Amino acid sequence: MKKFMKFGCLGVIGLIALIVVVAVFSTGGEDTETSGTNQGENQSEETTNDQSSSEDEDAAEEASSEETYSVGDTAEVDGVQFTLKSVTTTDERNEFAETDPSQVVKVEYEIVNNKEDEISVGGDLQAYDGTGNQVESYPLDNTMGSLQPGKKIQGVEHFGIEEGPIEIYFQPLVSFEDPAIFTAEVQ
């Protein structure tokens, strides 16, 4: 009988606590004297306004992050400025290359280091051909090295592709920002 009394008292206390919690959450913790109709309308308007401004901001961010550039354009990613100078095909081949692509594309670019630290150059480009396949760097005279703060370099990278156009993503090696995307017809 004593066990039943202890459990019964605890059960009653738990039930009361549950009722209080449900009552608080059902009113949203707000003053219950406000008119339910106006309160709901105001919340609905605020929610709609908040959602539309949030959606507008998201759309603007997506548009800026998905902006594509062309030959001659300049983009800055994480304090490093990249200008795509030209995209041309070359007949030059490396007899020791492991692949034999139908076209080798020469990408010429300029990088300006606007950061306060030295940066690595080379390996910061990623490319996709006209079929949507990611393509590997082709082993010709590709630029590799480093660049001091405030300095610039003229670089070259070769890619083996099956068909154009080519899509080039620039992102410094140690950056966590979204890459700049360049598209170019292969000439």
CATH class membership of the largest domain = Mainly Beta
Instruction: Please trace the helix and strand order, writing H or E for each element.
Output: HHEEEEEEEEEEE
Radius of gyration: 30 Å
Mean pLDDT: 79
**In percent, how much strand structure appears in the residues?**
25-35%
The number of distinct structural domains comes to: 2
Question: Strand tally, please?
Answer: 11
CATH architecture of the largest domain: Sandwich
Helix content percent band: 25-40%
Structural class: alpha+beta
User: What is the number of helices?
Assistant: 2
Strand order of the largest sheet: 1-11-10-6-7
Given as residue ranges, the uncertain stretches (5+ residues, pLDDT < 50) are: 1-7, 29-37, 59-64
Say what the CATH topology of the largest domain is: Immunoglobulin-like
| Major sheet description | 5 strands, mixed
Shape: globular
Protein name: DUF4352 domain-containing protein
Region (Disordered): 30-75
Biased composition (Acidic residues): 43-65
InterPro entries: DUF4352, Immunoprotect_excell_Ig-like
